[in-house]
Structure prediction request, 563 residues.
Amino acid sequence: MNRASAATYDVESVRREFPVLRETVHGRPLVYLDSAASAQKPQAVIDAERYVYEHAYANIHRGVHHLSMVATEAYEKARETVQRFLGAADRREIVLLRGTTEAINLVAQSYGRKHVGVGDEILITALEHHSNIVPWQMLREEKSATLRVVPIDDDGVVDMAAFDRLLSSRTRIVSVAHVSNALGTVNPVRRMTELAHAAGAVVVVDGAQAAPHLAVDVRAIGCDFYAFSGHKLYGPSGIGALYGKAALLDAMPPWQGGGDMISSVSFEKTTWNDLPYKFEAGTPNIAGGIALGAAIEWVEGIGKDAIEAHEADLLRCGTEVLQSIPGLRIVGTAREKAGVLSFVLEGIHPHDVGTILDYEGIAVRTGHHCAQPVMTRFGIPATTRASLACFNTRGELDTLARGLRKVQEMFK
Amino acid sequence: MTDDLRELYQEVILDHSKRPRNFHGMPEATSSAVGHNPLCGDRVTVFVRVDGDVVRDVSFEGAGCSISTASASMMTDALKGKTTAEARALFERFHELVTADPSKSATPAAELGKLAVFAGVHEFPMRVKCASLAWHTVRAALEGGGRASTE
Prediction:
C-alpha cells in the first residue's frame, strides 16, 4: 500500500489483456467504471472458457470416458484454486455455486432453517446489499425470528458499540458484508467475528465486493461462512463459491436435491454425498467454474497486493478529483474503504448523470445499487457510483471529472 | 453534445424538470396513486380531482430524474380539462411515442402537442420507464387509486 508499488504497477500492460477496453462507445474510448456491478474479463479467462468447450468439455463426476475425466479434473483443480485463494484449510469446505446470492440463500435455508427458531435473532448491518437482507427476511418470516440491524454513521461506518450491544444470547447468525457495494466501507469482519462468536453466533461474510479488491483469508477472519462471486473477480457470471467450516457443513442438511448430491438413492432411503457435493445438486456451470480458477490465477499473477495498492491510489486520486467539483458530495467516506466512489451532484438526478456520461463513453452505475436501506439512511433516492478495477487509470478519473462538469453545464 | 442527447434533453424538458408545474399535494383530490420505479427507486404521487367525467385538476409530488419530473409536470398540464376517456387515450399515445420507432408509429407526434418533445426517449430504452412512470400512476389514480409500478 505504498507509493512505490503503485508507481511500478504497469496498468497499460494490464489493460492490454482486456479485449473490451479497445471498444469505443458513442465514438469515445470506453471508460469502464462499473466493475462493482460486474468486472470485465481478461483474455486468459475468455481463453480458459473457450478451451474447455473446444477441448475438454463433458459432464463431470459421472463418465468414465476421457473427456469427463479431463473436465472433472479441471473443475476440481479450480475448487482447489478457490480454496487457496480464500485461505481455507480443506477443499471440502469450498462449495461451488452460482454466486454470492445463492451462497447466502444456501446458508439461510440450510443452516438457518435448522438452527433458527421462534424469537431467535439474526444480526445484519445497515449497509448490506439486498442479497444479504432478503434471504434473512424470508427466514425470519418462516421461523418467527427477529432481524436486527446495526446502524451506520454519516461516513458509512458500522457502529461497533451498537454491534456489540445488539448481540445477545438469542443471536444465532451474524451476516455482514466484507466491503459495502454502495459505499465502499470495509467492515472490521475479524473483530465482528470475535464478538459474534463470544455471543455464540455463527458468522456469514458477504465477500462479493471484497474478493476483487482485498486479500481474503477466511482462517484469519475466523468466520464460519464466506461467499463471493466470480463475475466481480474478472471471472464468468453464474459461478461463485461458498466457504463453510467443514464441521458446520457436515451437520447441515442439503438445500437442493438432485443428481451428484447423493451417494445412493432408493425410494425408501437416500444418503447424501460427501462434502462439498452434498450442496452441489445438478450439473453446474462447468466451463464457468474452470474459468473462475483461471481468473483467480490471473489475479494472483498480477498480484493481489499490487492490485490493492493500485486501486488505493486510484481511490485517493478519484476522491481528490471529485471533491474539487463544486456541488458534488461523496456518499461513503469511511477511512477504511475499497473500490467504490459513490456520489451525488446537487440538483441533478443520478439517472441523468449516467445517461450523459454514457455519451462520453463512461460506464457508471446509477441508482440504489441494490442497497435501498443505505439510500434511505442518507436521505437520497440514488447515487452515481464509479467503481474501480485493476485496469482503471488516473486519466480515466480525470475523464470522469470532465464528464461531470459537462453534466453540470447542461443542468445549470 | 450529440444529437441523440440534445433530442432527449430538450430545453422544454430541462425547464419542466427545474421548475415543475402543478408540483404539490391536493387536499381536495378525489383520488391519488403512488408510482414506483423499482429500477431506480424513483417515487411519484399523482393526485386527481375528477368531476363527473372530467379531470378538473392534476398535481404530483415526488423525486425523480429530469425525464420523470418533466414528464409528470407536462402530463399534469396536458390532462387538465380532459375527460377520463381522453386521458386514457393520451396515455396510450404517449406510451407509443416513447416506446416505438417514430417512423413506424401510427400516431403522428403532432396529436400529442407539447408532449411530442418526449419522442427522443425511444432512443434510450433504459429511460422509457422514467418518462412513463407518472402516466402509469395517473392511470392507477383514475382507476380508483392505489399503487402503480413500471415493472
Remarks:
- The domain at 3-143 of chain B is CATH 3.90.1010.10 (Sufe protein. Chain: A).
- Chain B has one domain: 3-143.
